[in-house]
Write a structure and sequence with these properties.
Blueprint (H helix, E strand, L loop, with lengths): L7 E6 L6 E6 L12 E4 L6 E4 L1 H13 L7 E6 L5 H6 L5 E8 L3 H5 L8 E5 L14 E7 L8 H11 E10 L13 H10 L3 E7 L5 E7 L1
Parallel strand pairs: 5-6, 5-8, 6-7, 8-9
Antiparallel strand pairs: 1-2, 3-4, 9-11, 10-11
EC number: 2.1.-.-
Pfam family, one: Methyltransf_11
InterPro entries: Methyltransf_11, SAM-dependent_MTases_sf
């Protein structure tokens, strides 16, 4: 059962044995510049490790990106923003074409460095995605912190079920009383909506990502 929480992982890798060392804390986001650091003893070898913000950021990013490995073919990064996912995904040579879609024109400039023959920025909102992508034209759809901004969820599920042929990987957060949310579907309800449309789903509740969840829907 999903439970809201305020925790982020703060971690790195042991200098001695290379194993991950981390704690959960609710005072600092790993992306926020801060002098905060911790000392932790590696659970594998006992070596003491000091974890600073730059270490925690790299650890957090790697943990996020581990959920988006193994993609291929045509990939849509939905709500790409400044290109956090796209910059990592474009390194994967198994991806033939990567589309980064966002409603903010500023994101086109922020992803300009990716604009070559394997990446294309699409300026569009989340409504009527089938106007921009033909049925069966996308192998994988990925998103992070996007679904809570979808207003017409039924149209959204219909569109991506038509567009995507292989897999949907969706990471996000859910806060019942957050005013930024445009729908109130809980993670289990999102997974159920995919299942109703013929997808097989796997859901994971993320204790290291503030009120986070991950859903993988595959055919």
């Amino acid at each position: 059962m999903f439970q809201e929480h305020d925790y982020f992982v703060w971690g790195s890798y042991c200098d001695k044995c290379g194993e991950p060392c981390s704690i959960l804390q609710n005072g600092h986001h790993p992306w926020e510049k801060t002098a905060f650091s911790i000392k932790i003893n590696c659970s594998a070898c006992g070596h003491e490790r000091v974890i600073r913000q730059s270490d925690a950021e790299a650890f957090y990013n790697k943990k996020i990106l581990s959920y988006f490995s193994g993609l291929s073919g045509f990939v849509l990064d939905l709500g790409c923003g400044s290109g956090f996912l796209s910059r990592a995904l474009i390194q994967n040579q198994q991806i033939d074409k990567l589309y980064g879609l966002d409603t903010d024109p500023a994101c086109e400039k922020e992803t300009a460095g990716l604009c070559h023959n394997r990446f294309k920025f699409v300026l569009a909102d989340l409504r009527n995605l089938n106007q921009f992508f033909a049925p069966g034209s996308v192998d994988y759809l990925v998103s992070r912190d996007v679904f809570m901004f979808v207003e017409d969820t039924e149209q959204f599920f219909t569109d991506i079920t038509s567009i995507v042929t292989t897999e949907i990987r969706q990471m996000g957060w859910f806060r019942r009383n957050n005013p930024r949310m445009r729908n109130r579907l809980e993670p289990s309800q999102i997974a159920h909506a995919y299942e109703e449309r013929g997808w097989k789903t796997h859901i994971e509740y993320l204790d290291w990502y503030k009120s986070g969840y991950y859903i993988c829907a595959s055919k």
